[in-house]
Amino acid sequence: MTTIGTTRARLRAATTVAAIAALLGALTAAPAQADDPADMFCEVPGQELAISPVSGLSDGQAVTWLSTVKGTAPTTFTGEYIGKLDNGLGYDAYGNPRDLLLVRLSGPEVDGAAGTPAAGVWAGASGSPVYDADGALIGAVSYGFSSLADNVAGVTPAAYMKAIGDLPLSRSLTLSAQKKIATLAGEPAPTASSTASIRQLRPVRVTVGTTAATLDAVASRLSKEVDGYRPVVSRGLAIGGGADDGADYPIVTGGNIAVSYGFGAVASASIGTVTAVCGDDVYAFGHPNEQNSALSVNIHGASAARIVPDLGQSYKMVSAIGKVKGHLVQDRLAGIRGVLGAGAPTVPITTVSIAGSNTSTAVSHISEELVLAPAVAAQLGSDVLRTLDNAWEGTAKVSWRIEYERNGRVSTLHNVNTYASREMLSELVGWDVSEDIAQLQANPFDDVTIVSIKATTRFAEGYRAGRVSALQIRQSGTWKNVSPGSVMKATRGKTYDFRTVLKAAPGAAGGTQYVPFSVTVPSTVKRTMTLTVSPPAEQWDDPVMEAESFDELIAALNANARGDVVERTASYVKTNGIRSSRTIPLPAPVMIDGGTRISFQLQVSP
């Protein structure tokens, strides 16, 4: 093992090694060394690729590199090796220092041409392979040093990627390291007050059918409101545009690669560059994606539109993400590795939108279960926007079914609710179903696997909400108002027809609505029965949080606090002296926006 300075330094290194091993697990074999000239990156016939030994590189040495700037075909660029930053990527699990190579890249997009500003090294370039004059792989473009259009990139040595080694996500640079980079890159030396860090070149984050901000907002809210729920979101520089067109885009060295947690109506993927293809193995990025190999991730080809120069961060604009080409098996500090062929299993999210006589269906396929809850909220929100073409106002009644497997049996959680808003309908419609999913996944009682999610939404234009304003009884074919607090004669065993009157809430469309119901006077009523109708009561406690078993959790979720019901309560004393009281939620045609609590009595003969 390489000696690290003094005894005290060795002790510090050993402590670092122990911490890394505890977090990441011990490696089963020592990683390949970056300066071993005999190493091969790939020995598959027809794909042979040698690893260029770091010890053989010299300052000013010409290099070539591949990356895709438009479409799917890689472009060859030039550059030069300008040195390395010793121990720039920290120590591996054995205490060996890992160096970061420095390469000055060149090309029309990097340097600017024909009136186009220089982009420098762009987001989405991570993984671009760098070769020596003999075609041996030096490594992958993966790190940057400036948010400006800088043409100097940090390159992860090929041997580290081949070994899927142990690299730190980010390491602050000392002043001496900053000065060395500045000298190698021909830039002014920094002062003692300067700060810098080795930063991953971010992949490009493309979101289809929604926005990255929407997915992140739902995920963040769920993590705060559902105990134990920890969502997963795609990484990278979020950009607009891009489509999930399902085309068969190739996975080739220097080409685009998209790693996704889902595709279809709602898709979320991080796009970078392929470093090498060896048989069915695909290496990319040169840095981690999520640094969690247990996540279920698919890989796709993708098509680039152009490289966009930007003062904040230049980036690759992606025009489309293609069909699934395989799945990810390793997401490590030195890069990602996927396998071509079958994709990871997915869970379907199917949403049906009904507006008048028109019906449309959207389907997403989600591979990572911790993305399901944010994805369904985003998909239902997208249904609002495309169906009503209104980002603010509207009304929607949503019915959803969540199929889940527990202890080898498949069960279904079914709920319904109505949502109406004058300013944020798209943010409301998917919240309850997403929370149901998160509660199932985060429950502390049993392992649950979501099998499928289906939701049907009936839309109406405008804000439609009513307030409880009156109660009427049907007598002799005519509806008559019931005075609050009044007493009416009644007969045991007889059925009476009532309806709750809902007056349109301020600013609401749709006019007066009614909620009909019938009441049969029990034969066991001693003297009077009190009937009460009211808006849905606010819940001050949370039955989900109070659940002490999985069955209690399901019961609490099934008792979904709906906003589109009128509560009817019947209370009376039985002839045996026992008091009876029962509240029934009555579905209303619109969302209930408050109103009056109305009570009266039905009195029977002694």
Detailed description of the structure:
- There is one protein chain.
- With 606 residues, this protein is an alpha+beta fold.
- The protein has 3 domains: 25-210 and 232-342, no CATH class; 347-460, Dna Ligase, domain 1 (2-Layer Sandwich); 465-603, no CATH class.
- 16% of the residues lie in helices and 42% in strands.
- It has 10 helices and 33 strands.
- The strands form 5 sheets. A 6-stranded antiparallel β-barrel has the order 3-4-5-8-7-6.
- Strand 16 and strand 17 (315-332) form a beta hairpin.
- It starts with 6 loop residues before the first helix and ends with a strand.
Features:
606 residues; alpha+beta; Dna Ligase, domain 1; 3 domains; six-stranded antiparallel beta barrel; 10 helices; elongated; disordered N terminus; Peptidase S55 domain-containing protein; signal; Peptidase_S55; TAT_signal
